[in-house]
Amino acid sequence: MNKKHFIVLFCLGLFIIACKKSSPIVEEIETFLGFQKPANFPATAYNFASNPVTKDGFELGRMLFYEPRLSRNNTITCGSCHIQSSAFTQHGHDVSHGIDDRLGTRNSPPIMNLAWSKAFNWGGGVYDLDTQPIIPITTHEEMDENLENVYNKLRAMPKYTSKFKAAFGTEEINTANFMKALSQFMVMCISSNAKYDKVMRKEGGVSFTAEELEGYTLFKDKCSSCHTEPLFTDGSFRNNGLGISPVNDKGLYTATLIETDKYKFKVPSLRNLKYTAPYMHDGRFLTLNGVLEHYNSEVQATPNLDPLLSGNRLGISLTANEKTKISAFLNTLNDEDFIKNPLLAEQ
C-alpha cells in the first residue's frame, strides 16, 4: 500500500467513525414524539381522542398541506397562503391571493396553536378543525376545487394510497381521513418557545429587560382582557372599532345572522407579530405602531362596538412612551424556533 492509498483509507475511516458517532443525534431528530402540550399552556380544545397524532398521520397531513393538487389547476397549496417563515400567514399581502391570483377579502390568518381554538376563521362559522379545510379548498378565490376531484387526483398517486394505508389502516381516501390527516399537521404547528415562554417557564435564567417588564405591566392593564395569556387571544369575536369597510364585511354576522354579531371578528393571537404583518382581518395596518395608534385615537363608534372600547373615550389611551414599551413586550412573543422548525417545513 502506498502513502496515497493509506491517506484515502484513513480519511474514509474517520468519516465512518464520525457517522457512527452522529447516529444517535440523527435518531433523536427523527424520533417523532407526537403532540406535546407546552408546560405553560392550558388544556387543549381539540378532540385528540378521536384523532390521536401519529407519525404516519402527521407526515400525511404535511404532504397534503403542501400538495398543489388540492387546488383546481394544481398550483395552490395550503402553504401558498400559510407560509412557515411568516408564522403560516401570507406575509406582505393585505388580503389573501389565491388561484389565478384572485383576491379574497380577508388577510390570511396564522396556522398556529389551533389545538386550543374552539372556532375558526376571522368571521367564525367553523367550530371543528377537522372541517375547516373544506372552506379554502372549495372557495372560488382560494383553491376553487371540489373534494371529490381532490380525492380522485390523490387516488391516482401510489404515494398517497400507501400513506393513507399507513396512517389509517386503509388505502381508501375519504373525507374523514383526509381531514384528520390535515388536522394532525395543523395541531402540531405549536408556537411556544418565544422569550416570553422561557421567562414564564423559568428556563435558562431568561428574564425580561426593564423595558419589556414595564411593557408587560402595561399590556396586562390595557390589552389582556381580549389577548389572554399564554395564547394571547381569548378566542372570542369582537368589534374593535375599525369601521365599516368598503366591502362591508360583516364578520361573525355572516355565519350567525344575529344582528348583534355584525362587524365582530375573531380576536387574533399577538404571537409572532414580527413575521405576520400586515395586521387586522383586512390587513389594513402595515406596522404594529399603526395598530396601537388605532386603539389610541382611531376607534370608530360602529354598531356592536366592544364595550371595552366605548364609554367616555373611544379606544385605549396610549402615550408614545407606553406604545414603545408595549411593543418591546410584544417582541418577546416572537418565536424563531416555530418559523424554522424543520418538522413543519415542506419535505
Provide structural commentary:
There is one protein chain. This protein is an all-alpha fold. It has 2 domains: 55-191, Cytochrome c-like domain (Cytochrome Bc1 Complex, Chain D, domain 2), CATH 1.10.760; 195-337, Cytochrome c-like domain (Cytochrome Bc1 Complex, Chain D, domain 2, Orthogonal Bundle). The chain is 37% helix and 1% strand. Helix 2 (55-65) runs antiparallel to helix 6 (158-168) and helix 9 (210-222) packs across helix 12. It is globular and about 60 Å long.
Question: How is this structure best summarized?
Answer:
This protein is an all-alpha fold and 347 residues long.
Mind telling me which CATH architecture of the largest domain this is?
Orthogonal Bundle
Our count of helices gives: 13
* Total number of strands: 2
Shape: globular
* CATH fold name of the largest domain: Cytochrome Bc1 Complex, Chain D, domain 2
Rounded Rg? 23 Å
Q: What's the N-to-C terminus distance?
A: 44 Å
The residue fraction in helices comes out at 25-40%
Biggest sheet strand line-up: 1-2
Q: Structural class from helices and strands?
A: mainly alpha
Order of helices and strands: HHHHHHHHHEHEHHH
CATH class of the largest domain: Mainly Alpha
Main location: periplasm
Subcellular location: Periplasm
Keywords: Heme, Iron, Metal-binding, Oxidoreductase, Periplasm, Peroxidase, Signal
Pfam families: CCP_MauG
